[in-house]
Amino acid sequence: MGHIRLGPLPKTRKWVRVVGLIANGAAAAQVAAATVTAAEKALLRAANDPGVVESVWLLAQLPLAAAADEFGPALRDRGLVVPDEPTLLTVIGAASEAVDAKLAGNRGRTDLGEMAQAAAAESLAAVVGGRLRGLFDPAPDEVRAAFARLGAEKQFGHLARDFFARFTFKALNYFVGKAAPGEVGEAGRFRTLAQLAAFIDSLDTHCREAAGVVERFAGGWYSKARFETGGEVPRDRVAGFVAHAMTKLTDELRARA
Amino acid sequence: MAPERLILCGPLADAERPGDPGPVRLRMWGPEAEVHLRAEDVREALYTDVPPALLDLIDVAAYVYAADQAVVRNADGGEYGPGWRRNLAFRVPVREPDRWRSEPVRSRLVAALSFLSDDEYRFEFEPLAGGPPLHGYLDFGGTPFDGIVEDVVMFSGGLDSLAGAVREAVTDRRKVLLVHHRSSEKLTPRHRRLLDGLGRHAGAAAPLHLPIRVNKAERLSRETTQRSRSFLYTALGATFAVMLGRDKLRFYENGVMSLNLPPATQVVGGRATRTTHPLALRRMSDLLAALTGRPFAVENPFLWKTKTEVVRLAADAGCADLIGLTTSCAHTRAGTADQPHCGECSQCVDRRFAVLAAGQGDHDPASGYRVDLLTGERPNELSRAFLTAYLETANQVERMSPVDFFVRFGEAARALRQAGLPEDAAGSRMYDLYRRHAAAVNGVVDRAVEAAGRGGAIRRRELPPTCLIRLVSDGGPDAEPPAEPAGGQPADNLFQRVGQAWRVRFAGGREHVLLPSRGAAYLHLLLSRPDAGVPAAELAFEVTRNRARYALGDAGERIDRDAASVYRARCVDLRADLDRAERDNDPGAADRARAELEALGEELRVAAGLGGRVRKAADDRERVRKAVGEAVRRAIKDIREFDPALADHLAGRVRCGRELRYTADQGVRWET
Question: ipTM more than 0.90?
């Protein structure tokens, strides 16, 4: 038991180029741009991916629920099975479960969707968890207030940036991580694990910087969507938002090579 | 979505769509049976009244297990996993079709399987007429069984299941039935010694043992991931448990492996097995409850223990002598009696760390591993990839706060609600579990590095370059420069060879890597000679004769057809040089041209003798001109992907043709 399956990169010209850049010492920014070029079609499918759209839709729902009269029931109205006064980990667990329920039986499940689901949980832990005095068993009012703050234009932009930074990093490192460990060792680019870790950190930082392009419009989009739809943010609007964000992000990553 | 694969099972395999090669056909009994189940050593009488629903469950599980191996997962290519997930449609004959068609049973079956194997499932259930009873295809031996089984426990023969059996039979003195998958005859003597040893330690509470074998026709063994295997063994174990009047089935697996949070970004979904993931166990429990009409629990009592703690538990119970008889390796076929462990797969790495961290290395000697965890060379990239991810995860987790942990492992969200605790309590225990695991792993690494340093092995560079100790030891005196290009004050405009590629920088911007190509080499030559016209043949000749210098590798001694064209084109230029030198009465230049012509002529004669086709020199010059221009334009296109400004600059200032020229911009000076 306990097998973990790892795989190599394809041998096509674009992927051979990515491997070559890693092996020859290219900076994370250039590797990221080459990876975006190689995986662009797959990346841009995110807007049509039910797992990605559902994850972002749930992120957009949480501040709305926190602004309602009763947080727990408002979350339940949105498909999250939670008690009346949920903690952050309750919400994170329920959100993940809600995505799984949406993709019951793996219908519509993709790796992009899986990565978005994990990125959403991580963003909530980072953005909301970072504002709590303690992660475990926080005061209910504190949790609700932290979620409610995300409804402000600037704060939602911050959450969106965090999510898309994580999602993009995962999506790029999904491929880069298949090639880079092969370069660890005396004959490779990374003589030690520390050097490999530094490179992966650079890739993460690069994605975070590039995701600033999403932060610049996400808050405005959120406010407008709520205004135009009477306070709700429907899934089709979220899909459009994801499409726009991914186009902007891939362009930005290429421009920052 | 992957195209649907139809799986026709049992009698339907012969009755439906005969001659159509599309469906996978699986038969479990009769002369053409391809899937065989065999259980041994438990008295047959115990199972005379197995309910039809459980017989059906075993059938369904066996068909799923066989199909899991018969339908391959495809390579992902450059996509996000479309080849990994399969779309499997089963048509299965069962004894109680109405029960299986009912919503709770069907949906729970799909929920359990889809989480375990990451595939899509669709089931159609047909009535089964005349299926054999359990003992029709489970062949029971005749060992007397006189005890009372208190619980049924799955037993793999690995470390965790040994510790579970030790806890049940040795520590708690409980009489349990160990249901054991006998995966390979090769391991039978080891397992027998292990069970004999366990029986000696347990005395009167010696566990009963039920080995089960599943044999398949060779044609069904195409896919090795076998994510549904545990479903089959759960079905069998649960059947025995129900028949013995029990309402639970136990797996023993350490929590880190059970949760199996992905150690690397590429490990998405079921690529990290979910055999004993709390959600998998819950979904199997739900299915069994729906099938049997009463609560049933599939549980893992080791969920909050690390593997190191599990090993200690066995040792503390006085059973350390059994550790060396357990087998954890994924590659049992390649193992030998002396070296049953490869030392490279995830199970071997995890096992070895736990044994060393628990101070039980003497009971599981390093000689039993083909690759030593700490000092063994790892030329295999995937082996290195797993080890690096495993070590880096432990390294990071040790320094994480609780928030950091959940920020790093979004996948943990799936387990928060499945552990039978409130989410915050489960989260807190999960965090503690991983921290203890990380401390154990890092402790082994630190002690090994310290010992190697103390003994001078690191300083003397005696250890293989890809061994763990070398990989985690930060650079010695001759360490390479940092991975990211940095340092000093590089020129604003740079086009320099570094390693097997080119470092390129324009107008003081970011430095990039340009991968080797003929075009890159031509550009380098042109930038090195600004404003000078260079004949295409001369450029091509220079690069062809010095492939290694331009990072194009070694073409070997024999010149190839393209090179021959370049040489012939160069000959034309040299003859013109010779004519000119003779006209100008320049004997030095004439001698140089003559000598080069002779050398080239000799190489071309050798090439022609080897089958080279004679081509007119004029054709060669034109061909070389076109090829050089094309190569330069391709290189500029490559540059455009990372530095459009430089690409524009070069496109505007490099003139191609019979003679190429880079016209320098005022103030742009290239360091080459």
Answer: yes
